[in-house]
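Fig. S4 source data, part A: sequence.
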Amino acid sequence: MPRVGSIRDKRQGELFLAIAILIVVDQLSKLWVRNGLSVGQSLPEEGTLRLTHVINSGGVFGLPAPQPWPVVFSVLIIIGLLLLYYRYPAFDKPLPKIALGLLVGGAVGNLVDRLRFGYVTDFIDLNLWGDFHWPAFNLADCAIVLGVFLFAISLLGRREYVNPN
């Protein structure tokens, strides 16, 4: 008979390994952009989807934010998500765990940039129509959005998220 908690311990290891892999891939992609493109440079120069080196010193989508708030907000999100994971056993199921891993990995990936450089490196540039560009984003941002989407799906109709007892 396995000791109590051993299966959960293994699953926690899997979660943190996934988070670490996401952080590494995110940081490597940003390093590639910082080393390969000048700020404002795009590859290709025209098109719907481009790689454009953008420095985001603001908040979400480049919106202006007082300098310490993006860091504080990121840390609070990470702590809150991890507390949810440890408090609610329902988060140990596959879909919410994947969502949690994406959210935490993405938040940490952007937090690393903010702490190292004071800004986040963004590079995925979508020109949706005419001169309208969606604000540039990065792989960490993609992970966060996908994590929120998967988390919302996992919450639909789940009573244990509302009442943990």
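Fig. S4 source data, part B ends here. Residues 6-161 form one domain.
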